[in-house]
Design goal:
The complex is a heterodimer of chains A (297) and B (354). Chain A is an all-alpha fold. Helices cover 71% and strands 1% of the residues of chain A. Chain A contains 15 helices and two strands. In chain A, helix 7 crosses helix 9 and helix 10 crosses helix 11. Chain A is globular, with a radius of gyration of 23 Å. Chain A starts with a helix and ends in an 8-residue tail after the last helix. By secondary structure, chain B is an alpha+beta fold. Helix content of chain B is 25%, strand content 35%. A six-stranded mixed sheet of chain B has the order 6-7-8-3-9-10, sandwiched between helices. The chains are: A mainly alpha (297), B alpha+beta (354). At the A-B interface, helix 10 and helix 11 of A face helix 2, helix 4 and helix 6 of B.
């Protein structure tokens, strides 16, 4: 993030708008970004103002009816649920991945590499496979509750899916590897003497972790929270398989509108709305998270 | 009554197949500054970390005063330690860094603040309490790290090459300042260093380590004047180390030359092999030739290095090359290729058993 901001700041200081050879280097990434990212986004933005034609597709227009429709309780509640779910998953994922990455640093480089390869291989699984595996694992007939019965923890097997907890499990499974891979480079640069210094000053290992490691790693933690938050907003298969209809996210509704209801203008409006809301939240996180400037020793 | 502040008994530390510290016995008197001195990989830092509780010994016991602290975790040992990287907390201000241990102990905020200010005055930086660590210079960070390690008024003050990040001039100043601070507080301290000049400047007692073993313990001058073995003689300053054979109780033979010595180590008989050590500043060189005798050799100047503050003469005496350091004003009027007389005074010759 900081690295991305630096060239812009340097260009701004230059003040003159003369074209230099190094600016030409930016034309390639600029063009790619325009063609493959801004173009489709512009089309989607335009379509969100189009008029839907019953029984057909849509026609160009400039109406606000799509946006007016999403300001209903149904969609606003759904938006609130989606954002809360993503925040919860981000918090769960980072609070699991952070101690895990910290403990990973204590292993030999060989074991660290094996763990990272394993996590990368988890990433190669498709969302569908993950969702169905969890649904089997949490089912009544073949699920983990049978193990609990066998252990004497439960009287009879029960089903944990579909449900909210199952949905969070599925989300967490997808995001955990990303979170670890995101925290790993920063954590590996953490000076181990920081923790040792805290220990010689009377801090127990737990206290040293919370009073030194966590605050020192604040920026990577905020970055990982944002990444998981944004990443999970777009997930639309897991809620349908592991959640009940009341646990469906806005992404599910967008898919539903676009594919099954053939209402692409309304789906576009929902997508734009989701994008704007999440951007606003991310900006808020930056303002709150970046307020206390942290010096690097 | 216990006069030892710290006592190590048979301390051994193995990492897998590597023995980092090998059977170290050591007693350090109260109030002194001891230096662990040795080349990199000699086990000096490991030994310090064992004392701090950051590593557990494979064998041996560690006593702090009367207490056996071998099995005590690091955070219960109450030692002050300055780390090589300084390990200042980047998310805390200077005062918060210094007061960290007091906060862990549960001191009230006002007491912490007052103590931090006192410590900052002790290290002569009264005005930086509210700055961030990133805003400090290298020397200032150094002082903050020292102040932080002293906050709990520890019985033992450990320093792991704390000055290595400073430039040469600042390092020399800090050595003297740190030594004066240690003397003023009378705190038992251990400094780990690979810089023999730093050890000579600061230490009351030098512990020379090599390959995980203690080579010699003594005052800086003892170590310099009477090295216990060839390793110490070579590592501390520079030395002419000559393979020799014992001739009788007062003489050794080196490449056919006979050299008188004051004393021999116990147990060396005539015919035994040994090493003769003589410091370059004790090797006297005069122009002209001299009769060969006990400690007098004839030779030729092979090379002269005049670096201003001292003159180094390389003299070949047959197969033997000797290095002599003389002050510029005593420089003999000789040049490369001239014949000279070399004198090795018996009092300056140390014979080291092999």
């Amino acid at each position: 993030m900081t690295a991305g901001a630096a060239p812009g700041a340097a260009a701004g200081r230059g003040a003159t708008l003369r074209l230099r050879p190094r600016h030409l280097l930016l034309t390639y990434p600029g063009a790619m970004l325009g063609v493959f990212f801004l173009g489709p986004f512009g089309i989607m933005l335009a379509v969100s103002f189009f008029q839907r034609v019953e029984g057909a597709f849509y026609e160009p227009a400039f109406v606000f009816s799509n946006y007016a429709r999403l300001l209903s309780d149904l969609f606003l509640n759904n938006l609130a649920f989606s954002l809360s779910l993503s925040m919860l998953v981000a918090a769960v994922s980072v609070s699991l991945a952070f101690p895990f990455t910290y403990l990973l640093m204590r292993l030999s480089v060989r074991w660290q590499t094996l763990w990272l390869v394993f996590l990368l291989s988890v990433l190669s699984l498709s969302e569908v496979i993950v969702a169905f595996s969890w649904s089997v694992l949490l089912s009544k007939t073949a699920g983990v509750s049978n193990v609990f019965v066998w252990l004497g923890l439960l009287d009879s097997p029960t089903s944990y899916a579909p449900g909210f907890i199952a949905e969070v499990f599925g989300y967490g499974y997808l995001t955990l590897p990303y979170t670890v891979l995101m925290l790993y480079p920063q954590m590996s640069r953490l000076d181990p003497e920081l923790v040792e210094a805290a220990r010689t000053m009377g801090a127990s290992p737990q206290r040293a972790f919370f009073s030194v490691v966590v605050p020192t790693m604040r920026q990577p933690i905020v970055a990982a929270l944002i990444l998981v938050f944004v990443f999970t907003l777009g997930i639309y298969l897991i809620p349908q398989i592991l959640g009940q209809p009341q646990h469906w996210t806005l992404s599910v509704l967008i898919t539903d509108q676009a594919i099954y209801q053939s209402n692409v203008p309304f789906a576009s409006a929902l997508a734009v709305f989701l994008l704007v809301t999440s951007l606003a939240l991310i900006a808020l996180t930056f303002v709150l998270g970046g307020r206390q400037r942290v010096g690097r020793a | 009554m216990h006069t030892e502040a710290l006592s190590l008994q048979g301390i051994t530390k193995r990492f897998g197949d590597v023995t980092a510290v090998d059977g170290v016995d050591l007693d350090l008197p109260r109030g002194e500054l001891a230096c662990f001195l040795g080349p990199s990989g000699c086990g000096k830092t490991t030994l310090l970390r064992l004392i701090a509780g950051l590593e557990a010994p494979t064998r041996g016991r560690i006593h702090l005063g009367r207490d056996d602290i071998t099995d005590l975790p690091a955070h219960r040992r109450k030692l002050g330690m300055v780390f090589q990287s300084l390990a200042l907390f980047p998310h805390l201000s200077v005062a918060e860094n210094i007061a960290y241990s007091l906060r862990v102990r549960g001191d009230a905020k006002r007491d912490r603040r007052q103590k931090a200010q006192e410590l900052l005055e002790l290290v002569q930086m009264p005005d930086v309490a509210d700055r961030h660590i990133a805003q400090l210079s290298g020397g200032q960070r150094q002082r903050v790290a020292i102040a932080r390690a002293l906050a709990l008024e520890p019985e033992l003050f450990l320093l792991d090459e704390p000055l290595s990040a400073l430039d040469a001039k600042l390092r020399e100043e800090m050595q003297i300042e740190l030594k004066l601070l240690q003397q003023r507080l009378g705190i038992t301290s251990i400094l780990v260093t690979h810089d023999q000049r730093e050890a000579m400047t600061m230490a009351d007692r030098v512990v020379v380590l090599n390959a995980g073993r203690v080579q010699q313990v003594g005052t800086p001058l003892e170590i310099y004047r009477r090295p216990a073995n060839a390793f110490v003689a070579d590592f501390i300053g520079t030395s002419n180390l000559l393979r020799c054979e014992v001739a009788d109780g007062t003489r050794v033979r080196v490449h056919g030359h006979t050299i008188a010595v004051d004393s021999l180590p116990d147990g060396l008989r005539a015919g035994a092999g040994a090493t003769l050590s003589i410091r370059p500043e004790d090797v006297r060189v005069q122009a002209g030739t001299a009769a060969e005798g006990d400690g007098r050799l004839g030779g030729t100047v092979a090379f002269v290095r005049d670096v201003g503050q001292s003159v180094e003469l390389y003299v070949d005496c047959g197969e033997l090359r000797l290095i002599s350091h003389v002050p510029p004003r005593d420089k003999p009027a000789v040049g490369q290729g001239d014949a000279v007389a070399v004198e090795l005074p018996a009092a300056a010759c140390t014979v080291l058993a092999q």
